[in-house]
Amino acid sequence: MFDFSTRVIPYLTPSERADVISLMSGAGLSFDEGADAVAVVEDMNGKPAASASLFGYVIRMVAVDPVHQESGLAAMAISALMETARMRGVTRLFLYTKPGTAPRFASLGFKNIAETGAAALLETGEPGISAYRRYLAENRRSGDGKIGCIAANCDPFTLGHRYLMDRASEACDHFYVIVAEEDKSRFSYPDRYEMVRLGTEDIGNMTLLRSGPYAVSDATFPTYFLKDRSERAAAAEQTRLDLALFLRLFVPALGINVRFVGTEPLSPVTNMYNEAMKEVLVPEGVEVAEIERAASASGDPISASAARAVLDSGDVSKLPSYLPAAVLNYMRERGII
User: Fold this and answer.
1) Tens digit of pLDDT for each residue in 314-325?
2) Do residue 119 and residue 176 come from a single domain?
3) Strand (E) positions, the chain?
4) Can you give the residue range of the structural domain that contains 22?
5) Range 61-69, long-range pairs (CB < 8 A, 24+ positions)
6) Which of 110, 126, 142 is the last residue before a domain boundary?
């Protein structure tokens, strides 16, 4: 590729941003703000011919000028971002791309770990999905009977989460709670995990698991963590990719045959995810048990967002209506309240 050169740009100027947006528009993609670095492949005249963007440990927004579609320029951009990530100490990378282009990146070490009709998630580096699959196998408690699963962010762990887990405990021989590990919430992952652990110590048929980057993460479901949830089409596709990976990874590794969710009257994205579960999981033999959300004494649905609003108000006297006693004690010990 002697006629092309690659630049890795930490911050896009307005003109560079316009060039990248133009490339992406030509490829039928939308531009997202917040990339840590953008690789741009330019021809000998300095005209951008391809680009790719790095978001933490995920490469997204891979676009190539249609004139150069078969020239291997996407691989040039991705290779540059891989080197940038290595220099930053990132040892595992994910690549979000279209299914038809996924095989092109095998030479760079990327393996397809999940895909839908419109998107594919590839991975390279260590610790990879094989190591996480071993972790699940080590924590598998039973393969017989009704085996349930709850995946949640728990920011923070509420009486609503506990209510859902009590219903799962009653209905299942065993069930697993997967706490989203992405650290993009109000409470850190260690705090969220510990709150769930303390709030469920008395549930004997439950196993608590870390999610790694394989459930509701920047790799599988980046829209979940955006404050602006207006990109409904992107969120809809990402729900299906997250669920495709759930079917390929968690279901066989843990023997899951039912997934529990609470009804979602407040968040359109979460409600979309619940509906997608029914469409994607049920045909594959995984039941979706949708449980009516628990309500506070005032009749309002108990949610993590409602609990955060109470924390923001400073009126801690209302928190016992939203949070288990073990979580309240933890927050007091940590100086959170």
Assistant:
1) 888 999 999 999
2) no
3) 4-9, 37-43, 48-55, 58-64, 92-97, 111-115, 120-125, 147-152, 174-179, 206-210, 258-262, 287-291
4) 4-126
5) 61/20, 61/24, 61/29, 61/31, 61/32, 61/35, 62/95, 62/96, 62/97, 62/101, 63/20, 63/23, 63/24, 63/26, 63/27, 63/29, 64/23, 64/27, 65/23, 65/26, 66/26, 66/27
6) 126
Shared domain for 21 and 121, answered yes or no, is yes
In this structure, the answer to whether residues 114 and 170 fall within a common structural domain is no
Please report where in the chains the tokens 């759930």 appear, as a residue. Answer: 246
- Indicate if 153 and 231 belong to the same structural domain: yes
Say what the alpha-carbon torsion angle 97, 99, 105, 106 is, to the nearest 10 degrees: 140
- Do 8 and 109 lie in one domain? The reply is yes
317 and 185 share one domain: yes
Cα–Cα distance, 265 to 293 (Å, whole number): 9
Model confidence pLDDT, tens digit, residues 115-174: 998 889 999 999 999 999 999 999 999 768 999 999 999 999 999 999 999 999 999 999
- pTM reported for the whole predicted model: 0.90
